[in-house]
Amino acid sequence: MYRVFGRSFSSFAIPSIKQLFAKSKTKETVTIKGWVKSLRKMKGITFLDISDGSTDIKLQVVANKSLQLENLTTGSSVTVVGSMDRNPKGQLEVTADDIDISGKCILEEGYPFAPRKTYTPEYVRQYLHLRSRTNKFASMLRIRDGVTQAIHAHLHDEGYINIHTPILTSNDCEGAGEVFNIQPESQNIQRAMARENVPLTESYFNGKVFLTVSGQLHLEAMAHGLSKVYTLGPVFRAENSRSRLHLAEFYMLELETAFVDKLEDLMSCIEKLIQNVTILVLHKYQTDFKQAQIGDLDFAWTQKQFPVITHDYALEVLKQNGRNLNDDCNFTKEDEIFLVKHCGNVPTFVINWPKDQKPFYMKECKTEKGKVAALDLLAPNVGEIVGGSLREDDYYLLQEKLPTEKLQWYLELRKFGGVPTAGFGLGFERYLQLLLGITNIKDTIPFPRWPHNCSL
Ligand code: 4AD
Ligand code: MG
User: Fold this and answer.
1) Does residue 9 register a pLDDT over 60?
2) pLDDT score for 329
3) Taking CB atoms and a 6 Å cutoff, what residues make up the pocket around ligand 1?
4) Listed residue (92, 107, 97) closest to 67, CA to CA
5) How far is CA 293 from each of CA 282, 348, 412, 431, rounded to the nearest angstrom?
6) Which top CATH class is 133-178+213-444?
7) Comparing C-alpha atoms, which of 70, 123, 61 is closest to residue 97?
8) In this predicted structure, what is the pLDDT of residue 230?
9) pLDDT in tens, 374-406
10) What pLDDT shows up at residue 25?
């Protein structure tokens, strides 16, 4: 028997506080659903600041004694019905006719946030499941959403097509061995898939499968048909790092463009994307920026070309300034930040990297032997935020460098209508660190994962 329910979307139709502020019609009866941020009880009258998360601006509600709010505490969720008007300061506020407590907030049971108090990020991080209740983190999440929307808008304007690259993959794109292995947990599936002499990690997919470290190779395949493609999704790296700049799960924006054979063109594309997105969100989220941003940040770099230095020049600068490089001449995070300062403390491209420091897919420089046409973009306080390159499009050269037979399909792209392509990956959380001056990357993502930490 089917039961047919009458359709009611009344709860969905209630405007958010942001929408109410935008309409700003007064003398109207409104319904607001949200959380009590703060509460001041005066003689005969209670003032409540309500937030539903849609904006950083709180809506003030004035409640008469007759509404009996003795048990109401901050942190509780409420439904308010009342009339909207302007107070003597000209701000919109609601005089409540009725306040219904949806969920009490039992402060004595350990609610960690008191009204109007600020807490250190380390303190707030202990309560990952409650972080969206703090003003700062809620602002960061709205800006994070704004950046996502701005990236999609910018790239669609530029003619790019969004591709959902897979999370499960048999390749280790970067070749650094930082992959997480996957296998089925269910005993039933394990038994059903079991084959003689085949380890559990290889039985389900007939070979090892990992969580992706980068969608690049799949994106390259799609670029050989759609020309301009991108993906913005989670990637996973099993690094033994608990640094302020590393996560085991992070988001990466990856772009791949066909018919590009100059590093200059790739750099222009990256610069334009980062500048446009930054200008857009700075403008659209001004009040959220005041909440979420740490320190006074200078965004003059949104108006100027980013400096470009070669890897050789970078090495010279570091040596001349007495910085000891490690044996394989890899830059440390401190080296990266030093180089950025040296170039005016603005995002800086480092190009033409030693071949042995970069993955197999990068194209060799025509002019410099032993170098690949690769770039890193280094940012103030953060260091590397982008890694990219021209891709090796010569079938025979790539064949020599192919790390595994499993990538024959990738080689084949160069056989059937092959084209030069170029692309890059932008670390989404590292970009947010740059944008907001956030020291620790764990404060830019709702549920950070790092070694020994994946409890919720
Ligand atoms: O330089 P990476 O490893 O480049 C790639 O994965 C390329 N396949 C991208 C491409 O060309 N399509 O990573 C790109 C960026 C880095 O510059 C850094 O900003 C960020 O990803 N990143 C991390 N962010 C947070 N936690 C980590 N553990 C990160 N590792 C890299
Ligand atoms: Mg890199």
Assistant:
1) no
2) 74
3) 173-174, 214, 216, 237, 239, 246-247, 250, 252, 254, 384-388, 423-425, 427, 429-430
4) 97
5) 11, 22, 47, 13
6) alpha beta
7) 61
8) 99
9) 999 999 999 999 999 999 999 999 999 999 999
10) 74
Counting Cα atoms < 13 Å in the Cβ hemisphere of 97 gives 8
Query: For residue 301, what are the β-bridge partners?
Result: none
Which pLDDT value is given to residue 121?
95
Distance in angstroms (rounded) separating the CA atoms of residues 56 and 303: 28
pLDDT tens for 56-109 read 999 999 999 889 888 899 999 999 999 999 988 888 999 999 999 999 999 999
pLDDT at 324: 80
- For residue 136, name the pLDDT band (cuts at 50, 70, 90): very high
- According to the model, what pLDDT value does residue 13 have? 80
Interval between CA 313 and ligand 2 midpoint (Å): 19
| 58's tokens | 């709180």
Nearest to 277 by CA among 307, 344, 217, 232: 232
Closest-CA residue, ligand 1 atom 9, reads 425
Q: What is the mean pLDDT of the chain?
A: 94
| Alpha-carbon gap, residue 62 to 82, rounded angstroms | 9
Of 27, 32, 31, give the one whose Cα is nearest residue 57.
Answer: 32
Domain ranges of the chain: 13-113, 133-178+213-444
- Ligand 2 centroid – CA 293 distance (Å): 26
Token representation of residue 432: 């947010």
* Dihedral over alpha carbons 78, 82, 87, 92 (to 10 degrees): 70
Q: For residues 329 and 436, what is the distance between their CA atoms, to the nearest angstrom?
A: 31
Number of CB atoms found within 10 A of residue 452's CB = 7
Position 197 confidence tier, pLDDT thresholds 50, 70, 90 = confident
| Spatial distance between the Cα atoms of 339 and 378, rounded to a whole number of angstroms | 8
Please, what CATH class does the domain formed by 13-113 belong to? Answer: mainly beta
Total length of the chain: 456
* DSSP-H helix ranges across 72-130: 121-125
Domains 13-113 and 133-178+213-444 share a fold: no
Report the distance separating Cα 121 and Cα 75, nearest Å.
19
Q: With beta carbons less than 8 A apart as the criterion, state whether 80 and 36 touch.
A: no
Report CA(234)–ligand 1 centroid distance (Å).
11
Task: Give the confidence band of 26 by pLDDT, cuts at 50, 70, 90.
Answer: confident
pLDDT at 1: 60
